[in-house]
Amino acid sequence: MEIPAIEVFDIHKTYGKGESAVEAVRGISLTIHKGELFGFLGPNGAGKTTSLRMMVGLLEQTKGEVQILGMTPKDRNSRNELKSKIGIIPQDISIYQDLTVEENMWFMANAYKLPKEIAENRIDELIKKIGLGEKRKSLARTLSGGQKRRLNLIMGIIHDPVVILCDEPTPGLDPQSRVAVWEFVQNLVKKEGKTVVLTTHFMEEADRLSDRVAIIDKGKILVLDTPDKLKASVGEGDLIEIQINESEKLEAAKEALSNFKGVQEINITANQLTVRCLDVIPRMAALLNVIEDLNVEIEHLGIRNTTLEDVFINLTGRSLRD
Questions:
Q1: CA-CA distance, 140 to 144, in Å (whole number)?
Q2: Best CA proximity match to 107, nearest among 158, 48, 39, 169
Q3: Does residue 160 sit in the same domain as residue 254?
Q4: Is there a domain that residue 5 lies in?
Q5: Which class for 21: exposed (0-12), middle (13-18), buried (19 or more C-beta within 10 A)?
Q6: Which residues, 6+ apart, have CB-to-CB distance to 286 below 8 Å?
Q7: Are residues 94 and 223 both part of a single domain?
Q8: Domain presence at residue 11
Q9: pLDDT in tens, 161-209
Q10: Spatial contact of 284 and 239, defined as CB atoms under 8 Å apart
Q11: Distance between CA atoms of residues 124 and 136, nearest Å
Q12: Which of 195, 235, 258, 289 lies 20 to 30 A from 60 at CA?
C-alpha cells in the first residue's frame, strides 16, 4: 500500500493556559494522497495556516501527530531528509527587494545547496514557466504585486520538492495574475506529479483547483470531499439571490416564500435572501410577485449555480466573508 503524502492524526493547537487559553485547531485528522491537490477552505482565522504550519513542523502541535511521506517532521533525522522534499510558499511575500529576480532565485538555490548546473536549469525553467522572463534582470522592488507573488511562489520550489504547501497564494492579485498562478499550481500536480496543499478563503480558487476540499471553521473540519460532491450535498436547483432595501423585512420575505412551489431552501445573509428553487426560470415571475406583495423594493436580483460558499453557509449559517 502506497504511503500517503501527508497524514494528520487528531492535531490540536492551543495558545496560552487556563482561562485565557485559545484553541486555534481542535482535533483535525485527514489523509492527503500523493499527486493530489488538496484545498483548505475557510474564513480568515479558521485555523488553516496554523494547521499548515503544524503539518510541516514549523509549529509544534499541542496534541496529535503528523507524518509526511511516512516520516515525522519533529524527528531530527526525518526533518533533515524532509527539507529537500517539502516546498513552502508563505502567505506573506518573502523576497529580497534589492536583488534581481534571478538573484533571488540563486539565493534560494544556494540555501538548498543545489549544484550549479542543476540550479541554472531549474532557475531558467521556473522563471519562464511563471512568466517572468522579461523581468529576469529587474530588481524585485520594481515588480508589480502580481509579479512579486509569482516570484515568491517559484522561490519556494527551487529545490524541486515533491510536497508543496501554498498558504493563500493569490491575495490582492489582479485577475490575470491570479489565473497565471492557478495554472502554474495546477501544472505542478497534473504535469509534474507533485502533491500540493492549498489554503484559501476564495471559494472559486478552492473549487477550480482542488481535487478534494476540507472546509474548516473555528479550528475544526466541517466537511471533506470533492468540490462537486460538496456542492451536490447542499441540494438540487439553482440559486436566486435577492437583495432588498429593507433588511427588517427579510424574515417576512423568507416566510412568504417558504411554501412557494419548487423552493427547497432559503438562507438570509446580510441584506440578501438566497433561495434554492427547482425549475427557477418559469417560476421567476410568480416568485417575484410574492416579494412585491410585501411592498419591498428589490435592489438586486441574480441567478447562479451552487458554490462552495453555499456549502459553508449551509453548515454555519454565515458567509465566508462574514
A1: 9
A2: 158
A3: no
A4: no
A5: exposed
A6: 260
A7: yes
A8: no
A9: 999 999 999 988 888 889 989 999 999 999 999 999 999 999 999 999 9
A10: no
A11: 9
A12: 195
